[in-house]
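SUBJECT: A protein chain and its fold
Encoding: whole-number codes for local backbone shapes
Chain under study, with its fold:
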Amino acid sequence: MTAPLMPKATAVWLVDNTALTFDQIAAFCGLHPLEVKGIADGDVAMGIKGQDPVTAGQITRDEIKRGEEDTSYELKILESKHDLPEPKKGRKGPRYTPLSRRQERPDAIAWLVRYHPELTDGQIGKLVGTTKPTIQSIRDRSHWNMSNINPVDPVTLGLSTQIELDAAVQKAGRRLEREAKKAGKSVEDLGKLAPATQALADAAAGITPAGEGDFGQVLDPSASDAPDASDARDGERPDVDSVFSSLGGSTVAPEEDDDTPQG
């Protein structure tokens, strides 16, 4: 089905003015249901003015009413009276990022590095419109503004769509499967991660997957208070003589009795 000319603006209008479900709006506008939910929550498409698809001649009010009465009904877009060229799906060159969003790219890179380390630098660069040196500086924590970087979902920041993110994760998963098959190992051994929805759920629960640096440390509350085996001396309490001997000093001399007569 052909999507509306302004899918996000149309989705904003449908969320605000109809009782259609997120799945119905997503299918009609060619978006991901999580994007539509983000629009309803005010996290996605902020500042975009809604576009009335009825006025634009893309759908009828009867079609919207039918969709509101039956949540399983799939809305059908009206055929255009004019032959419009098909939009080009592919892009040439890197993704353009508005100036107002460029300072948020490091946050998006940090999120992708933390929750989807299976993505290559090239895939991350295409998703958020950045360069490989920038990605590497965040991986090894050498970025000049590292102390102020907080991982944020690139979909929430509007730097990529949920569909593009899921497609990149699935492509990376297929690559891992090929590498696992070639190496004679399982995909789990190579560290394939959960989908983006699971990553968001883990982030909300405070679960951090394993990886490199502070963006991939496993937080195990049960192990945080456990004593280090190297610091334990088989449960024995060290005596004074052993401490001084390890420091190269002499043992402590016994105290003299104050009642002993002097010279």
Residues 7 and 29 are 5 Å apart (CA to CA).
